[in-house]
Write a structure and sequence with these properties.
alpha/beta, 2 domains, eight-stranded mixed sheet, 13 helices
Length: 315
Amino acid sequence: MQASPPVVSVVIPAYNVAPYISETLRSVFAQTFAGYEVIVVNDGSPDTEDLERELAPCLNRIVYLKQENQGAGAARNAGIMAARGDFIAFLDADDLWLPDYLSEQLSFIRSNDYDLVYADALLFGQSPLAGRSFMQIAPSNGHVSFQSLISGQCNVITSGVVARKRLILEVGMFDEQLRNSQDFELWVRLVRHGARASYQRKVLLRYRYHENSLSGDALNQIRRELRVLGKIEESYDLTPREREEVLKAMAAVEANLELETGKLHLAKGEFAEAREAFRKACAASPSLKLRGALLLLRFAPRLLQKVYVRRADEK
């Protein structure tokens, strides 16, 4: 007899994750819910030899796909297209599910007739934030909607998402032109399409937190957020209210970009550039702390630099 098709297809993109993939797969194989398949997509990873060595013991338990490097969105799309389940569960190759993850998520979906749900996660890894939950750092409050996603009132963790495959296909899957933040853009598109989305505050997974450095990483992340919001503002057929929400979010991100730029200049002792960046950030989003920083930059810039670098080192 032919085995029944799986209920859930677990899609795991793999790129430079050989040290983590075995533990991640063990967390999937330990699920109390058994009706799943696992699809690992090697996105042209430079550590393919090591990755395949780690995958070898479980090749009879997974679907293994390989492609040239095209980014996480394209890798997830390849997994979606190969999926046989009615639901897609996304999992990054360095994160871990708790044993009841799938059973709890499917029960939550079915009891409320949701199309997309996400759960809370415990942060771990080399970070001062380890031991805190994802929703403590990036809260979710109120109803999941276009406005709450754009404004940051609701924040989705991709490794905690289970969604109906049919709707993902209807909206066109991940935008492969976006090399970053394509997951956020898909959640926005799904909700605008009418997907009923929600979250549960149960901690059902462990999220490996990679701290952004003091250098350019934080700036690059903010610039990527700005590009995605710009794409939404330019290419979506937005209502006046939706456009207002997007423009408001873009202004907030731009202010944050100026703030982080100012911090970088301050750390390097580039006081004139730091003052100009903080001035723009304060004009966009006024605060007493920024006004105080501007005052110190005028009269005691090296004192401010010393205090900032010391606090950054303590984090």
